[in-house]
Every structure is written in C-alpha cells, then in structure tokens.
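Researcher: Please translate sequence to structure tokens.
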Amino acid sequence: MSVFKRKPQYYILYILNLIMGKLYTFRNIVLLKYWGVELGKDVSFFGNVKVLNMNRISIGNRVRIISGYSNMVGGECKTAFYTGQQGAIRIGNDVGISNATLISQSEIWIEDKVFIGGGCKIYDNDFHALQADARLNRPLEIPTKPVKICKGAFVGGHSIILKGVIIGEYAVVGAGSLVVKDIPAGEVWGGSPAKKLKNVGN
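Model: Translation complete:
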C-alpha cells in the first residue's frame, strides 16, 4: 500500500484557506442578504460569488460553494446566481457547487445532496428567441422551462444543462456533457448531446 506524504506548504495553505474561508463567507453572506437571498444554516463559501436577484433565490443548510478559488477544476470561473423578474433558484441541503453559473428566467431547482462540478452552466432559458423576427423585434419573448436536478445527482465539471431538463435521483452526468433531455434516476449519461452510457454501479 502506498503512503502519500504532503509537503509542509500544503499544511500552511490549508490553514490559510481556513482563515480566508471565514472571510469569504462573511462577505458573501452580506452580499446575498443585500439581494434578498434566503440563506440556511452553516452555508460556507470559498471565493467571492456573483449575484443578481430580481425575484427569488433560496439556499439550504450546509451548502458549500466554491467560486474561482481552491478547486482547480473550473477555477477560472466564479460561481454566479442570476434570476430575472420571473426567475427562481432553489438549492436544497448538503449541496456542493464549484465555479458554476446558474441563470433563471423560470426556475432552477437543485434538491438535497447534489454536487455541481467545476465550470458547469445551468440555464432554464434560451436567452433569445429562435425566430429572427421575434429575436429582433420582440427581444423580451424568451423561451424558458424549469430545470430540476434531483436528490443525490452529480453533474461533472464543464457540463451544460439546458432548459426543461430533469436529472433523476443519483444520476451522474459525465464531465463536459451537453444535457438537452431528461436523465432517468440511477443512470450515467455523457457526451454532446448527452446519452446513456450505463447504470450507476455498472
């Protein structure tokens, strides 16, 4: 059995991270409360998040959010939460989010114990109409449909989840996937567009 040894620099960095984490958490809680975000207990932050809340954002208990800090995967990105006037973002308990962007004009619902990997994007809308006439002359007509990520699911780094998608309980989305349709519970999907690869545990 291999025994891994860590350099002294690791432990120094670990202590500094603990200190910085407290400072980031304080800063982000102040910012989120300013924007009317509903915060649960023991929410922790590593790095500064970005937020624009025009309707509703709620974050559950014991949620851990990394934003351009500590996690090398997607580390160049900051975690961002944006809701339009009809948008809502609901995050359950014991959720982990790393360097991800969530933009809602309808609803993004993340249930308990979900992990969102580094650099992921979750959009419940198309941002623009598909038809040129609507896009140019009626820019506020934006196709939108709720997104739901169910309990215990894992979304691999740099994946994109598009509008109307439901990801089932304990499902796994492979890194770098483009998800455009529902993923049943307990399945592993990957690719662009994502398709079933196997069942969890196989």
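Researcher: Any highlights?
Model: DSSP finds two helices and 20 strands in the chain.
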